[in-house]
Amino acid sequence: MGASTQPKACQFKLVLLGESAVGKSSLVLRFVKGQFHEYQESTIGAAFLTQTIVLDDTTVKFEIWDTAGQERYHSLAPMYYRGAQAAIIVYDITSQDTFLRATNWVKELQRQASPNIVMALAGNKSDLANKRMVEYADAQQYAEENNLLFMETSAKTAANVNDIFLAIAKKLPKSDPSANPVRSQGVDLSQANQSQSSGCCK
């Protein structure tokens, strides 16, 4: 809508990673559709959605891959984060184990993902702060040490959900069309007609 008046449009691949039931799908649903379902079925493999946000004079389109958290799908994850320009690693603030798993995802991305990937750590279910097992300060310190964006979010109340995607959009290299030269792979299966513009600005 109004694309002709938009001086710049960028498209980025973003992947969500994290343990099962931390609320990855709920975060995406809240961001893309503004909805929340108390009982969300587990993702099988991965789900694909898109959402566009406007940043100053730039339209940023996110191609969002919401991956399954169950251990049996772990081996598929590289297929989804390969070529991603951004990742949100999600944990549940009421579960120390999910935070530990999140740190493992960070290490894996640091080893295997694109070297200039923008990573954000999301402590989800902030509406359950009375059951908190992961301290905000601890997660924030970990994020700072690993150069991650960090926010506590709640898909239920929508707290910080749009903000974390916005923060990622602001950090992505929108002015450099050659920032991600290997873009066409892995996009054509669902966005064939747009693969040539994926990951850079027009």
From TrEMBL:
Pfam families: Ras (PF00071). Keywords: Endosome, GTP-binding, Hydrolase, Lipoprotein, Nucleotide-binding, Prenylation, Protein transport, Transport. One of its GO terms (biological process) is intracellular protein transport. One of its GO terms (molecular function) is GTPase activity. GO terms for cellular component: early endosome; endocytic vesicle; endomembrane system; plasma membrane. Its EC number is 3.6.5.2. It is found in: Early endosome. Belongs to the small GTPase superfamily. Rab family. It comes from the Eukaryota. Residues 174-202 are annotated as: Disordered. Its main location: other. PANTHER family: PTHR47978. It comes from Helobdella robusta (Californian leech). InterPro entries: P-loop_NTPase, Small_GTP-bd, Small_GTPase. This is small monomeric GTPase. Residues 177-202 have a biased composition (Polar residues). PROSITE patterns: RAB, RAS, RHO. It catalyses: GTP + H2O = GDP + phosphate + H(+).
